[in-house]
Request: fold
Amino acid sequence: MRARFGGVGGLGSSAVSDLVRALVIAGLVSGTQPLTIMGLLLVMAGQRPRRNGWAYVAGALVVETTVLLVADLVVGATVEPDTGPARAFLGIRIALGLALIVLGLLLRRPAKQPQPEVPKALERLQNMDPKKSFVAGFALADYQGPVIASLALAASDVSSSGRLLSIAFYTSLASGIPIALMLAITRSDRTRDRIDSGTKWVMRNRRVIASWICLVLGTFLAADATIGLLFVNSR
Reply:
């Protein structure tokens, strides 16, 4: 029978460094997802910026957290850490990290054709009400982060309370980063000007921003999984 680590929140020191680190990286991936952030800025351009923003973030939160909770319920702690499947999960995380790095490098190339100020796929997000903003957040939620986190939860050797605590770490970043951005933009009387100028700047520099996000997070993700794989193989 597999051992369950004890300690605060059901986590042992080794489990904390492995599981929480993986979910923190997954939370950063979700919280800085360029498409999700661009969608947030566009729905905030409506008549009710803050209400639209809260509704949008709530929609994304429902998707991302539900995926993790279901994954934890179905596959949480079902894979032995030192087995082939656990190594395969680490390999998938390395591949995802490398894919982000490659995408980041590709985005650094100039676009072959002039790009519209707002991507056509996102034009409908402008002038939405809170209900539609919630649906937009649901549709544009990030799935890479939940997949990465689900793989880590499956191969963890942590009690259920510890896994739930780790999910809380993920959620605090996945939703906290967009919320911090929303509050920073809407905190003054010049809200409309801030939203307009911020949205235009992000849209104008979206390739560069997305490139750096992919490069940095891809490097962290691949390095973290590589260290985990080397540690497992050395046991």
